[in-house]
Amino acid sequence: PIEGLGGPVVFVCAEFGVHPSLPIYSGGLGALAGDILKAASDLALPVIGVGLLYRKGYFQQRVDRTGLQHEYWTQIMPERLPTVQVRDERGGPLTLSFPFFGREVAFHVWRAEVGRVPLYLLDAELEENDPLDRWITARLYEGNPLTRLGQYGLLGLGTVRALRALGIEPGVLHFNEGHPALAALELAAEEVASGVAIDDALAAARERCVFTTHTPVPAGNETYETTSFLEAFADLPPRLGID
Question: Which residues lie closer than 8 Å to 103 by C-beta, 6 or more apart?
Answer without folding.
Answer: 130, 133
